[in-house]
Amino acid sequence: MRFLFRVFLFAGGAIFSAFTHVHAQGKSTEATLGQAFPQQISFSYEGKDYLLKKTGASELKHVRGDRSRSILTLTHYMQNPPAGTGVSAIESILKSSAAKQLIMQIKKDFDVGKFSARLDMFFNQAISQAELQKVQQNYKVLLAYFSDAVNEDDEFVVRWLPDGKLIISTSGRQDKVINDSALALVFWKVWLGELSPVNRTELVSLLTSR
Questions:
Q1: Residue 201 and residue 55: Cα distance in Å, rounded?
Q2: Of 3, 34, 125, 207, which residue is the least packed, with the fewest Cβ within 10 Å?
Q3: How far apart, in whole angstroms, are the C-alpha atoms of residue 142 and residue 132?
Q4: 3-state DSSP call for residue 70?
Q5: pTM of the model as a whole
Q6: What is the pLDDT of residue 145?
Q7: Measured at the alpha carbon of residue 141, what is the angle toward residues 62 and 193, in degrees to the nearest 5?
Q8: First-residue to last-residue Cα distance in the chain
Q9: Number of structural domains, the chain?
């Protein structure tokens, strides 16, 4: 139930006043992660209600020799997710203007600046320099939000709304709202693009061709 509690905590009063409520409905277990995640999440923002369904989850691990350690887990949600599987579903998600959400659950401690540096590395591996240059100003704002020390079990909720806003939330801090649809697309492409540091098809593993 810890995850469900945190979802409601994210929506609490002064901490994240922009979101009037968040509800998690149902749970299912991702076999590869051994964790339970809500099947659906609903929230309100600026007078509009959103219902997002889980599309899948994946895990980022650091592997050294025969040892591995989890760095973070990702759970992806989407409003009215598309029919389809694998790469075709991913392409539909990246093209869609529907609301989307990623929950990042941190699995190790990071000193000040270390987590943002790790994200910067992922961005530079997955996104072309030309594309990053187009969003450079807001990209710096995004990285700055992740520059504080990050502790194991911290969670970040990243939402991409239909109007192009990218909203980042974590417990105990003010939401960061970045009105930049190009940056939002870049952020999603880091995790769902061809050079994702995780198994990107796991993030759409619950979708079917219907």
A1: 10
A2: 34
A3: 12
A4: strand
A5: 0.84
A6: 97
A7: 45
A8: 31
A9: 1
